[in-house]
Design a protein that fits this description.
Layout lengths: L1 H15 L2 H19 L9 E6 L3 H11 L6 E5 L2 H9 L5 E5 L3 H6 L7 E5 L5 H29 L5 H18 L15 H11 L13 H20 L7 H4 L3 H29 L6 H24 L4 H17 L13 H5 L4 H5 L1
Parallel strand pairs: 1-2, 1-3
Antiparallel strand pairs: 3-4
Helix pairs in contact: 1-11, 2-9, 2-11, 6-7, 9-11, 9-12, 9-13, 11-12
Length: 357
Amino acid sequence: MEKRIYWGLALCKQQLCKPVLWAQMVILILLLWLVGFVSVPRPDNLEVLLCNEDGAFAQNLIERLKHSTGAFQFREVESREALFEELESGNAECGFICNQGLEAGLKQEKTNGLVTFVSVSGSQKGAGAGETVYQELFSMYSDLLLEHRAAELFEPPDLKEGLEYLRERNAYYKNSGRVFQVIYETVEQTGNRGEQSADETSEPKDQTGRGKGTDPVRGIAAMVILLQMLLICGEEKAPKGACFEACLPIGARSEFRLQKYLIGAAPLAIVSLCAYVLLKINQPMILEALRMIGFLLFSAVWVLLVGGRIKSRASYYGWLCPLIGLNLLLPPVFFQLSAYVPAVRWLNYLLPVGVYL
């Protein structure tokens, strides 16, 4: 026991005296902060924001859109600034602002600059949402246009009766499908792979994304910690990089290396837990600390087994990039590959980052 305590104190002193370790901790905090505040629009996000800066006409348009039966979910926000904030946070796909003077402009048959479309992602879903918005807008605009043009079509004595007739025929053509008709057909997907992919992509995500979606913050933290252990293992491949442990028996040598990996990555793990608190990740910190300890132990054993099989330094660093790539691409760090390839879910149990997430 005394030698293990001596090893631990010596390794702690050795790691803490390295300036690169302090630089790594600062960079890790900045990296997690950057990843935590960058919002990537979800592929299944179909929420569209609406803002009214005009009046009753625009409010009527918004209510019709909110009760529409299309694929998009329309939601009203209080102001233009609130719309921008929600788009920047990734809560919605795009937004539409009914500018002041919308009704007056339509009555004067002016359509430019009346509605502002705002999109952060620039995806094609915004174009689809625009078609829904403008379909409802021009449906309401047709009534205003008839009212504005009725005086040119009817004499004053017949104006009221003629306008009612035009509105009646306009409503008939809009609702009958004679002018515009859409035929919906449902195509059922067959095959086990299609059913599994649909189930996995449609399952709800929890607040941390653990096991049900992507988790870039915790995934990047785990990736950096694992990389630190792999680099420490790579130092042993140098000609004089493992002089001390080479003199130890096989059992003690493995124990010393495990202790070296754990102590070398422990500061980064502590920094990661502190970053979780600062980023307000909704996770019980005691439970998260236990998971981090389990991840450190699993990663140390994994690096010991994988690194021990590669003797050459050149071969080791040649395999380093594929090992990092597997831990970055297969686990749900930035995207969930297991939703498309179900076998990836089982492969993640062989990777430290996959086990952690």
